[in-house]
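Sanity check

After download, print the first record. It should look like this:
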Amino acid sequence: MNLQAIVAVSGKPGLWKALVQNKTGFILESLDAQKTKMVANLSTAKMAALDEITVFGEDEDIKLTDILERMKSAASVPDAKADGKALRNFFREVAPEHDEEKVYSSDIKKIITWFNILKDLPLFNEEVKTAAKAPVTEEAPVAQEIVTETPKKAKAPKAEEAETPAEEAEKAPKAKKAAVKKA
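Expected structure tokens:
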């Protein structure tokens, strides 16, 4: 079931297909017979992609796509206008691990309404397209190159600047003391 780009917009009935994204939001087309189009502003409209919606479960949340798959194979789907007990009994069949305290009958009605909209669409029976992965082949590990650095040659001081070893030893302790005082 390929539900990518199918969204529900809060405050708007039905389901919508996201056609194009512009600066301020999305251009949506309804999935009903009228095929009405609207611009959903991201700052004012709340949209939820159907492939990302989950339903509260007892242990962990249940993906809506899994519930819709089970509804597809169910013997009969009740009408969304049926009474709450019939809807709850049906939902126990297709999502037995849902949390009955957190999932309201209005949520079940909405899911059944969405199923009735989607079941006749070709994308409902279409598989999700995933990126083709290249076959993994095992190769012999490449030997890592060992890089050794050659020490840089120190420039020999000019004859005028040349210091005797005694002068160098005398300067070294003074430099350490100066560094300690600064710290």
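If your output differs, re-run the checksum step. Summary of this record's structure: The radius of gyration is 35 Å.
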